[in-house]
Amino acid sequence: MRILIVEDDKDLNRQLAEALTGAGYVIDKAFDGEEAHYLGDTEPYDAIILDVGLPLMDGISVLERWRRDGRTMPVLILTARDRWSDKVTGIDAGADDYVTKPFHVEEVLARVRALIRRAAGHASAEILCGPLRLDTKASRASLDGSPLKLTSHEYRLLAYLMHHQGQIVSRSELTEHMYDQDFDRDSNTIEVFVGRLRRKIGNDLIETVRGLGYRMQDASGQS
Questions:
Q1: Using CA atoms, how far apart are residues 46 and 24, in angstroms rounded to an integer?
Q2: How many whole angstroms separate alpha carbon 12 and alpha carbon 96?
Q3: How many CB atoms lie within 10 A of CB 223?
Q4: Which terminus of the chain has a smaller tally of CB atoms within 10 A, N or C?
Q5: Spatial separation of the C-alpha atoms in residues 220 and 1, rounded to whole Å
Q6: Domain tally, the chain
């Protein structure tokens, strides 16, 4: 899962990035509204954390432009505690949720998890797929009740497929959501990670759809 953090306070941006990276997300950063708009307009994010008070272009204007251009990614806005009007304006502009400053980073993590789950059609913090269980709160996975030992890339791949189970996901889509903007992306490495995952969870849960990509299936093979 790939997230854009838009916050001009470098310390706060770094704190959020460290917490989200530790939770298994891939992070891109922006420090002003113009950079934020460009990245949100050109990169496929699973969620965006957007500060309202930004240099060059304010967060509300950025959000309005995204929505006007048909960008539907979930957006969590950050507002100052005494600016209740920002909350109303942000929601009206297309924000999915908001957090007021100062805040606990754990609250932001929880709200981001919820936004990503809801966008994929999942209500619970735990996503099930046959014998597989993905605990999005703890960033852990288990098979038949036994914890799975996964690398960070394997976890990201599994999490994306489980959030989108039943859907065909191309290698290029997986690559875009597993690596940040500066990573030297090679979609061929996805095959390697899929092979490693299959050795850990079995061959039947991840189906190869020839010429199209991969699809996560349940234990009975029903997508």
A1: 13
A2: 21
A3: 12
A4: C
A5: 26
A6: 2
For the full predicted model, state whether its pTM sits above 0.85: yes
Give the Cα separation of 102 and 73 in Å (integer). Answer: 24
Between the alpha carbon of residue 157 and those of residues 65, 98, 160, 190, the distances in Å are 31, 28, 5, 8
The label of the residue with tokens 């490495």 reads 189
- For residue 104 the two structure tokens come to 């606990």
Quick: pLDDT tens for 45-68. 999 999 999 999 999 999 999 999
> Which of these, 165, 66, 68, lies nearest to 117 by C-alpha position?
165
d(CA 63, CA 68): 8
- What lies within 8 Å, CB to CB, of 198 at 6+ separation is 205, 206
Residue carrying structure tokens 């006007």 = 68
Supply 218's token pair.
Answer: 């349940």
Among residues 10, 5, 90, the alpha carbon closest in space to that of 46 is found at 5
Confirm whether 48 is domain-assigned.
yes
SS3 assignment, position 37: helix
